[in-house]
Amino acid sequence: MLMAGFRGLAVEATDTVAVDISERHLGGVVLFDYHVPANSPVRNIESPEQVGALVASLQSLAPTPLLVAIDQEGGRVSRLKESFGFPPTVSAQYLGEIDDLSLTFSEAAATAATLAGLGINLNLAPVVDLNTNPANPVIGGLERSFSADPAVVEAHALEVIGAHGEVGALTALKHFPGHGSSTADSHLGFVDVTDTWTSEELLPYQGIIAAGQADMVMTAHVFNEALDPHVPATLSNATISGLLRGELGYQGVVISDDMQMGAITEHYGFETAVEAAILAGVDILVFANNSVYEEDAIARAISFILDLVGSGRVSEARIDESYERIITLKRSL
User: Fold this and answer.
1) CB of 148 within 8 A of CB of 204?
2) What is the SS3 string spanning 125-156?
3) Angle at CA 169, nearest 5°, toward 241 and 153?
4) Could you confirm whether 20 is annotated as catalytic?
5) Is 286 helix (H, G, I), strand (E, B) or coil?
6) How far apart are CA 282 and CA 317, in angstroms?
7) Active-site residue, 257 included
8) What is the helix (H) or strand (E) element at residue 2, kind and residue range?
9) What pLDDT digit, counting tens, does each position of 280-316 carry?
10) Could you say which of 187, 215, 228, 283 is catalytic?
11) Rounded distance, CA 86 to CA 79, Å?
């Protein structure tokens, strides 16, 4: 139920991430090309050969095969850059504007083949946010959305998903229930979309879920008073268990956006956020360690979740639900 980011171009058996995997049964890792806390270009990616070796060494430590994730959306949000020896990519906005589904499939197929060749089995893409605010600093402004038209977004997202599926790679729809209309960046702090969000932003999710093509759904740390007057989506039972699972009928894995982003950490303590996310229905909690670097985040989270179950605040049945969803997804790899 946990996914972690870490520092290092290679991994040694004594490294924290190695111990988290081999002894604490960490279920997933996420790779980055830049170490934000230290403002350093040295993180996990140097070359194709190095990344392939890193992924293989991580998997060799794992009692249960890891989800190895990356944000390889294309364009501005690409961790595997040309400067490291990887193929060039284009943005979702570029593909949406051309609106040629065969081109989107071929671009996604090239990305998927790169990931599969490295052993990376989860692309944290496609973005299915609507480009309703082109000036949005974290979606439209970075050309991460295919279109403001939900039908265009859905059609192109399905091509991306299909291309990855052909090589056995998983994808994650993001950012539920919609980040495209926001005027602020949830990496930095509180983001309220109450006055800008519309139910139209749910349409790509609805269509892709109905088609049985959603491997994973990633939550957004956006606050929407119309959906939950108290907490942002990642911590909201009404939004995840009620809207996503209930109304939209989604039964698969829900993964959080990074739990260390400002929208969460500036307003909720570590333990409060972990408990609320689990009770809301999140299956995998991501600690990317790339806004802040907390080397003990996984150990702390595991200890606290055990306490939650031991005290009865979270039921064993709730943990079992997430376990079954995650293992079912891993069996598909």
Assistant:
1) no
2) CCECCCCCCCCCCCCHHHCCCCCCCHHHHHHH
3) 60
4) no
5) strand
6) 14
7) yes
8) strand 2-5
9) 999 999 999 999 999 999 999 999 999 999 999 999 9
10) 187
11) 10
pLDDT digits (tens, 9 = 90+) for 130-170: 999 999 999 999 999 999 999 999 999 999 999 999 999 99
Structure tokens at 40: 């350093």
- Of 71, 129, 257, 283, the active-site residue reads 257
Domain 2-331: which CATH number of 1.10.10.60, 2.60.40.770, 3.30.1330.40, 3.20.20.300? 3.20.20.300
Strand bridging mode 72-74 / 77-78: antiparallel
Mean pLDDT, range 190-196, rounded to an integer = 90
Confidence of residue 187 (pLDDT cuts 50, 70, 90): low
**Residue 99 structure tokens:** 């609106």
The structural domains of the chain, with segments of one domain joined by +, span 2-331
Classified as helix, coil or strand, 217 is strand
